[in-house]
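Recall the central idea of this unit: under ordinary conditions, the amino acid sequence of a chain determines the structure it adopts. In this exercise we apply that idea directly, starting from the sequence alone.
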Amino acid sequence: MEFWESVPEQKKAKEILNILFQNRRVPHAFIFSGPDGVGKFNTALQFCKNFYSTSDKDIFDNAIRKINSLQEPLVKYICALPRGKGEEAEFSSFEKLTSDQLEAYQNEIQKKINNPYYKIEIENANTIKISSIRDIKKFMSTTYDEYPYQFIIIDNADLMNEQSQNALLKSLEEPPEGYFFFLLTSKKEKLLQTIISRCWNIEFDPLTNETIKNILINKFNIEPVIAEKAALFSEGSIHTAIFLIDHDISRILENVISILRYSFGRRFYSAYKELNDCLSNQSEDDLKLIIRLIKIWLNDILKKRFSISNYYFNEFKDTIEKFDNKYGDSRVDVLFMKLSNLEEKCDMNLNLNVLILNLIFELRGLTLRN
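Accordingly, the structure predicted from this sequence is:
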């Protein structure tokens, strides 16, 4: 399709969308699910453009410009917003926001327009408000002869609460002709089954390190050396790579090594303090990232045991070799599974301090199982 050159990788997703489009069997609602920062938004945006590929030049040019700028009446873009002072459900999405909040939103949207891989971050915006969902009906109430196709993109759709999701159901059931929904999420399991059943689900894959590096360099102006290092630990996600860069990836990796050393050495208070210091936002998502980095270090231990030397933590290979020499019979595979279970618990709204202590004692347990 004409605009796929702007979407690196995601071959399966693009093939499915191609078949649907070419056979004129495009469903009115999609769920694009998969890790954050792999191109779900960019894919939706480029797919929308193809609907106007056979329009006359003036309409085509105007449609592409409006889609690129997330401009109504072509695109209704919905994301999490902060709650305004005294805001009630009957207020419109932006009615009670302060001028500073509105400015922050506009700045973030512009960054998203300039760079489809940019992650919108607005202070205290952790829910997609029901007022934003109700705005969809207003959006669909007016038809435009020159624009027969219009699109609703809901970013991080899992941030809708049950009330918002039920409101969305009413719009999904019988949308007017020419309207298409794109629900983007990394946590599809948080969506109501009734929503999932009304949408065509397309799974997205993590990106390769090479693609991550190129996007970091070309879209975020990151120096190649830093981009390559961040890509290595990104697990295929642009958002993870940017987080690592923004929080000094070298320092984070040093933190991880210190947490391991303190935990293995029974210096529990030092391990606890180190963990708290590197959880900048004191959030479960930050802790999940630390757990995943520790799992990568454990993977390096397994590489050592199979005489594979291309470590992720290559600059800390002394810790890998010293640990394996001392604890060569330790059940790294068992700890890996326990950390995976702990990572899942981070999504269960448990006390963060309890999760941190669990992590430290699980790490210590690795050397006790020898």
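Residues 284-305 form the longest helix (22 residues).
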